[in-house]
Amino acid sequence: MRTSQSYITSQIKIRSNFLSNMEQFAKEKHIPIMELVSIESLLQFLRLQQPKTILEVGSAIGYSAIRMAYTLPEAILTTIEKDNDRFQLASNYLKQAGLTDRIQLLHGDALEIDINSFKQSHYDAVFIDAAKGQYQRFFDKYSPLVPSGGVIYCDNMLMHGFTEIDIQDVPRRKRTMVRNLQQFTKWLMIHEEYETTFLPIGDGITISIKR
Fold first, then answer.
1. Structural contact between residues 160 and 203, judged by C-beta atoms closer than 8 angstroms
2. Which of 61, 83, 97, 176 is deepest in the core (most CB within 10 A)?
3. Model pTM greater than 0.90?
């Protein structure tokens, strides 16, 4: 699998110096951003969907928000980051990218933030990539903002392979998070309001289309 991933990654187009520098910075500072195969796949799904409004839960340094905005020049985005240092980094990168007019960056806990502070009243696409143990709560909170036909994307659903193995083989400090993610996956796959597909892309992506 890693050989396949490496081969696929080698076929991805070279990014601009700006994006490549962001990728290198995240790698050096051990800040998690989407794997290249995952972000390229997500962008292709978004090209097919053509959402006009996107909500991202978990900005990190703003990498995925910038990539989505570049890919969909007509889209308006809202992105939320809890960590203060990452929020500041994301703010600086959005300014450098010239996207502050199209990307609303909010600082706060996505589970506590007031949705009335959002510039949009609904979102055609929601991308969840924050605390893995809280995915079901994120999904529940932001689902009402998604219209029929809208899509919720969730990244890191394989959690580096931990969701695929017996919970007793998972490091103790990760067990609650992994257990919550496993339960969320089961809940999501039978959710009456959504048609969900689980794809083994990167670290695992689910695509849930609202009926």
1. yes
2. 61
3. yes
